[in-house]
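The records we work with from here on pair a chain with its fold. A complete example follows; check for yourself that the lines match position by position.
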Amino acid sequence: MKKYHRLTGFIILIVCSIILSSCTATSTLSPEQSIDNIMSDYNSPYVPGASVLVMKNDTIIFKKAYGSANLEESRAVTTATNFRLASITKEFTAMCILILQEQGKLSFDDKLVTFFPDLPLYGKDITARNLLNHTSGLVDYEDFVPASQTYQVLDRDCLELLKKTDTLYFSPGTTYQYSNTGYAFLALIVEKVSGKRFADFLKENIFDKVGMPTSVAFENGLSTVSNRAYGHSLNNGTWIQTDQSNTSAVLGDGGIYSNVEEMAMWISTLWNYKLISPQTQQLAWSDATLNDGTPIDYGMGWHIETYSGIRHPHHGGSTRGFRNHILVFPEQKILVIVLTNRNQGDPIVQAHAIADLYLNEK
């Protein structure tokens, strides 16, 4: 019996030594090696890839690409590869409205009928602010688009589709419900107020000023995407290209392509308040409230979360063939962005794991 205890103790000692050795090895990994481990599922030329960037204090401290941008061409991802941002686009659409508001060309409290007089009666109660923070109650335009439809819906089509209903999900300002329709409407408001096409307004007022020369609100036949990543999905164990759907041409809710390097320029511009005033930018990065004062986890174009004890803006983007996430910690001046061209995975998990490597640095 005593011999058994001694043997058991010896085995426990061996196991503990192995665990301690493993922990020591893990703790000695550099941040770069740790990120490679976090992104290991993307690190093969035979799978759809990813592009990752970390910036601190306006300096890019890590950037790396993994996997393939287009499996059909065997073309690798680089950090200059442009991915479809999907709903990360919404921060740009919101910024267009914020710019126009600061120019005095519209108010957050302007009603939808101000811009679209022929809307059903619900248009008299919904404000631009409701659209920005997803409290409009507008019905999802995708509910009117059958899966069998082969032609693509445009932003202006969303407006026409919503004229077919006189109902809302809820009274404006009483509930939060994420709305792609609202951001398609915001793109149309930008056009109405500025007199410019949405893609042109974006280019002139954001991309050109920030220094994002290859970023584009993509319109088939009107613009091109350089260094383009194509979306993929896993089908019976094989990756196939699944790059566009019949709603992929709606710009305001998800139509921008960009890369991690130019996105770093974007975020540097934001937290240094080079486009709009600090007060307006902080409004975009703060919890909005419902009519009764209840706060919601969304500002203007940005989700708001508490992570590692820090309240900060972030946003995901998920569409056919792409999944992305961006984390911004303005007070710490830390940015983490993960762009991927596959229909699988949840990049917020990787983004949080990468952020952990830098948030607690001494």
The chain has eleven helices and 13 strands. The mean pLDDT is 92. Residues 32-359 form a domain with the Beta-lactamase fold (CATH 3.40.710.10).
